[in-house]
Amino acid sequence: MTATTLKTGHVGINVTDLPRSVAFYREIFGLGLIGEKTDGEDRFAFLGEDDIVLALWEQSEGTFDTRRPGLHHLSFEAPDIAAVRRAEAALKDAGVELFYDGVVPHGEGAASGGVFFTDPDGTRLEIYAPTGADTAPAPVKGAPTCGFF
């Protein structure tokens, strides 16, 4: 097996409130509901669209701890910067706080960039485009923007 024969299957995320998280990911990312189990103790939902599939597992308490080893953030690539700006507007309409002031580049002189935010449980997320973000200054000097939010 080599890396070229693999692709991401699905990403599993622990959540504290399944209905709240399902609503968030459907509203912000436009993901459809593939399947769910909402009764009993083992509650989960699978959401997806095209190549993105998220499995939300209601089995945690508290918020995402960025100081512990494990996931740093999830990054989603948009087709262009206009799509990132639409996502930015949707996030603001939903009352989601952005880490930086709107769309920012991934680093000094980078054309790629996007918006950085968290889900309702504090999991760090990014929506970016490969080009078009070089109209704003990089918020983190000398390091990737997505590494330190």
Automatic annotation (TrEMBL):
It holds the Pfam family Glyoxalase. The keyword Metal-binding applies. Gene3D superfamilies: 2,3-Dihydroxybiphenyl 1,2-Dioxygenase, domain 1 (3.10.180.10). Keywords: Metal-binding. Residues 7-130 form the VOC domain. It comes from the Bacteria. The keyword Metal-binding applies. Signal peptide: none annotated. This is VOC family protein. It comes from Glycomyces tritici. The lineage of its organism: Bacteria, Bacillati, Actinomycetota, Actinomycetes, Glycomycetales.
